[in-house]
Design brief:
The protein is α+β, with helices and mostly antiparallel strands and 131 residues long. The protein has a domain of 87 residues: Alpha-Beta Plaits (2-Layer Sandwich), CATH 3.30.70. Helix content is 21%, strand content 16%. It has 3 helices and 5 strands, in the order αβαββαββ. Strands 2-3-5 form a 3-stranded antiparallel sheet. Strands 1-4 form a two-stranded antiparallel sheet. The longest helix has 17 residues. The structure holds iron/sulfur cluster (2 copies). One iron/sulfur cluster (SF4) binds next to α2.
């Protein structure tokens, strides 16, 4: 066997250090992940700032944003995280500071349709039901 006393003397402090340090692997999903500053996560919008100009939609290279317009002031801004490349172009394009990438991430799912989110909903309220 190739273990000499010298290598054991060298290795023992290393083993002790690693044992004292505890687990070094990521604990997710049992604990929240530690994300770095500047992490580019999901897209969020300050709805009060959004003007519905659709610049973010036009410039998104991944077709991850969609604007459904029903009238001049009535629209929905829809986000598809399953298409998003997290490039940050939408944040650069928005002239009103309304859209930005947040420090949150998209959880895995088997049904990508469940990921779609309405970021801004400026549709008129639905008419009341007939009595
Ligand atoms: S981060 Fe990039 S890919 Fe994602 S919505 Fe914005 S522009 Fe599109
Ligand atoms: S988020 Fe910004 S760029 Fe996108 S529609 Fe709203 S105002 Fe325009």
């Amino acid at each position: 066997m190739g273990f000499s006393l010298r290598s054991i003397v060298y290795l023992l402090p290393q083993v002790w250090r690693v044992l004292r340090a505890g687990p070094l692997t990521v604990q997710f999903p049992f604990a929240p992940p530690e994300l770095q500053e500047g992490y580019r996560g999901q897209v969020v919008v300050d709805a009060a700032r959004c003007r519905g100009c659709s610049l973010c939609v036009r410039d998104c290279p991944a077709f991850a944003l969609e604007l459904e317009r029903e009238g001049r002031e009535e629209y929905r801004l829809i986000y598809h995280p399953d298409r998003c490349a997290y490039c940050g172009q939408c944040e650069l394009s928005c002239q009103f500071g309304a859209i930005r990438l947040s420090n949150t991430f998209t959880r895995a799912t088997a049904d990508r349709d469940t990921l779609t989110r309405v970021l801004v909903d400026r549709r008129p309220s639905p008419p009341p039901l007939d009595e």
